[in-house]
Design brief:
By secondary structure, the protein is of the alpha+beta class. It folds into 2 domains: about 10-245, Rossmann fold; about 250-365, Beta Barrel (OB fold (Dihydrolipoamide Acetyltransferase, E2P)), CATH 2.40.50. The protein is built from 9 helices and 22 strands. Strand 12 and strand 13 form a beta hairpin. The protein is globular and about 75 Å long. The N and C termini lie far apart (about 50 Å).
Length: about 375
């Protein structure tokens, strides 16, 4: 049995990238400057909408792209100019890359043979990965003629077959996989991580994939990493309004507000905040997830009007109009819905305050209880 992998702590130092030869403004950069340390042996999901810079960042880490600014370090060693082969990583791309003239077994063995691994060890690892991707019965079948779904499983298996890599990088690898197999392969990836402790970075725009796979989720927006945190941290304390909007279904409600100390005002209605806040001259908003919005009657709370109710099984989503915008509230499936709802109130534990899209910490470090 092989020993544990080398793994790598990945440091991004003053990293930025522009595809233009002479970038002049922030808008010219696909990746804005960032400084981050990704700890060895952790599983990260790189999450964001299309065009936010996820694949650019992954390609810089893998060595397929050289950053125009800054450095990439593996365990303190500068690998900015090192080719992919020298970084000792496994990478799986969105669209399957397989050799049609080879069998499934030969495809899986290819990276191991390139490293001149003993035949018995190759056979053991190929058999193991073949079982993990559910293709034991097809190991001796030519890749030509297999479905895109099956080819992507081969590609995924080839990325996973080496146990000695510094890091495993996945660029939306389950896009062409059917939904049931997606769940199975995510489970296998988590098990692979638990068994071997590889540093894993998994690019996706699917929050379910990110939240179920990763120890830490790296949320990107407009070329920036706006938050790195556990799924719970992203849900409870989104550092940026985009995180609140993107994580959760429905996403966080945002209200333009005036905030002074422990009081906030939305659409003429004022209410207490769970802690004092100090805001400057930027646009101030209060963010509250639908789970923490309560329906009110009798003129209490922020004025609201129910537009429609959606029954989604475990709960109902109540869509309301508040200050001209749509707001969502969650009501338990068996909960009563008053007939004369005319307002909403907030559970204090679920209130966040934002200025110019960034979360404002309670003053004097007084977080909500």
């Amino acid at each position: 049995m092989r020993g544990p992998p080398d793994m790598a702590e990945i440091t991004l130092a003053n990293l930025a990238h522009s595809y233009l030869p002479d970038p002049r403004t922030g808008d010219d950069f696909a990746l804005k400057e960032m400084n981050h340390v990704w700890r060895d042996g952790e599983a990260y999901a790189l999450l964001g909408s299309s065009g936010c810079g996820k694949s650019t960042l992954l390609n810089i880490i893998s060595g397929l792209l050289r950053p125009s600014h800054g450095r990439v370090l593996f365990d303190g060693r500068d690998v900015t100019d090192a080719p992919t082969a020298e970084r000792n990583i496994g990478q799986v791309f969105q669209f399957p890359v397989v050799y049609d003239t080879m069998t499934v077994r030969e495809n899986l063995a290819f990276p191991l043979r390139n490293r001149r691994m003993p035949a018995a060890e190759i056979a053991r690892l190929v058999q193991k990965v073949g079982a993990m991707i559910g293709m034991e019965a097809e190991l001796d079948r030519k890749a030509r003629g297999l479905t895109a779904d099956a080819k992507q499983k081969i590609s995924l298996g080839r990325g996973m077959v080496r146990e000695d890599v510094n890091a495993l990088l996945f660029d939306e690898p389950l896009t062409v996989i059917d939904p049931h197999m997606k769940w199975e392969l995510r489970t296998q990836l988590k098990k692979l991580h638990q068994d071997f402790g590889h540093t894993m970075i998994y690019v996706t725009h699917d929050q379910t994939e990110a939240l179920t796979f990763a120890d830490k989720v790296v949320v990107m927006y407009d070329g920036r990493v706006v938050q790195i945190g556990t799924p719970q941290e992203l849900f409870e304390r989104p550092a940026h309004t985009f995180v609140g909007y993107f994580i959760g279904s429905p996403g966080m409600n945002l209200f333009d507000a005036q905030v002074a100390g422990r009081r906030a005002r939305i659409d003429g209605a004022s209410f207490d905040l769970p802690a004092p806040y100090v805001t400057g001259r930027g646009r101030v908003q209060v963010g509250v997830r639908p789970e923490f919005v309560r329906l009110a009657t009798g003129g209490g709370g922020v004025p609201a009007r129910i537009d429609r109710i959606e029954d989604v099984g475990r709960h109902r989503i109540v869509r309301l109009t508040v200050a001209g915008g749509e707001v969502s509230a969650l009501v338990p499936e068996d909960g009563t819905l008053p007939a004369d709802v005319d307002g909403i109130v907030f559970d204090p534990a679920g209130i966040n305050v934002y200025e110019d899209d960034w979360r404002v910490a309670p003053s004097a470090g007084q977080e909500a209880a």
